[in-house]
Automatic annotation (TrEMBL):
Protein name (record): Cytochrome P450 87A3
Keyword Repeat part of the UniProt annotation: no
PROSITE patterns: CYTOCHROME_P450 (PS00086)
Bilayer disposition of the protein: Single-pass membrane protein
Molecular function terms, GO-annotated: heme binding; iron ion binding; monooxygenase activity; oxidoreductase activity, acting on paired donors, with incorporation or reduction of molecular oxygen
Pfam families: p450
Cellular compartment(s): Membrane
Amino acid sequence: MYKWRNPKCNNGILPPGSMGFPLIGETLQLLIPSYSLDLHPFIKKRIQRYGPVFRTNLVGRPVIVSADPEVNHFILQQEGKSVEFWYLDAFSKLLGLEGESRISAAGRVHSYARGIALSYFGYESLKEKLLPQIEEMVTKTLHTWSSHTSIEVKHAASAMVFNFTARQMFSYDYENSSEKICEKFTNFLGCFLSFPLNIPGTTYHKCLKDQKEIVKMMKDMVKERRASPAAETRQGDLLDHVINDMNTEKFLTEDFIVHMMLALLFASFETTSVVLTLAFKLLAEHPSVLQELTAEHEAILKNRKNMDSSLTWDEYKSMTFTLQVTNELLRLGNIAPGLFRRALKDIQVNGYTIPAGWIIMVVSSALQLNPNTFEDPLAFNPWRWKDLDSNIISKNFMPFGGGMRQCVGADYSKVFMATFFHVLVTKFRWTKIRGGDVYRNPIIGFGDGIHIKVAGKA
Ligand code: HEM
């Protein structure tokens, strides 16, 4: 017990904090649901007690938590030097961050994976190709939603983003596919803080089983494509591109490709669907925001020669209020409790030592809910963004992370959400039927979900 509570630190002193009980550490306290958008009480209370940098133990790993802006910035810039991208054990295993074909690798491998994701989902691709495709798919999806008496938004939005992303990646034909791959992904997030105990009945066991099925399905697909290299069977999607590159990039094994696609899919739909779900909750509670949002998009239609033409890039760029709404949703959403890294060597911060091998949890969300920067921080107030200084924003608002691991899907998700709002408010009406409770455990969740009724505008 003494040894557990007083971990060794050969070089300097550890930040203050408590390591909890042997094996479980303080995991259970972090998993207690908190029914608010506020920072999880686990983090809030410890910041008050110990200051913005403290130590703890989560799922059996010693962790340093930082809610200090300077330390956070420093850690995110240390990628590949004194820290590496690392989530907790169960999650790392599921996402393929360990093993021979580690997708978390730094340097050449990492820049290849970023480059490929950006060439399909980055700014240029969105501007030149994806915007009208997103608009078409959102319109179709909302039509389908309108044919149901009730839609649970989180579930339906997850499927929408997943299907579109999977179509760009491996030409997934969601309308005609019998395999609803998306369903198998939904349990993944539950693994975020699970113990890596592979025993029937545990969350980890269930996740591992789902993951194996997905990996097998994707591996079969990669094998099938590789076995039929004829030009006429090529789809020109991300998977074809990567398979082509296997001749020149030796790290591109089938395992690596499967895990890379899995991580990209997972990163895309769980995040974007959470923000869209939160949007329905907050817009239903704040009709004046919905009113101004609708006015912005109706003005776009009025300024067109032909009201029925597709959304253009210039129109997207003109959506000032939509961007403010999106920023406010991202600020309050704080999807992940923190960004995780592993110290590769002893690191000195604020007079303390982060020992090599420890996990570092960068809690950038603490800055997004800081009342000194964002007055009345829990209020949903998109208008606040009009007056915020860009310097303050860049230092205190990091919904897409920072440094070398900054989100590659930031533009994609922003375009997706703006297009979704555009189609929703110009072509459809909706009402909330029930639900909308939010909790953090510490990941944001929506209880029984948010149920809405959608109808076409006359
Ligand atoms: C609202 C939506 C989204 C949010 C809030 C979000 C947030 C983030 C954050 C905070 C990180 C940094 C993680 C870290 O440093 O540990 C990240 C990384 C990443 N995101 Fe997103 N993301 C979103 C949408 C997407 C989408 C749509 C995609 C897919 C195209 C995507 C793909 C990725 C990838 C591949 C990384 C890892 C980048 C790297 O390691 O270099 N994200 N995201």
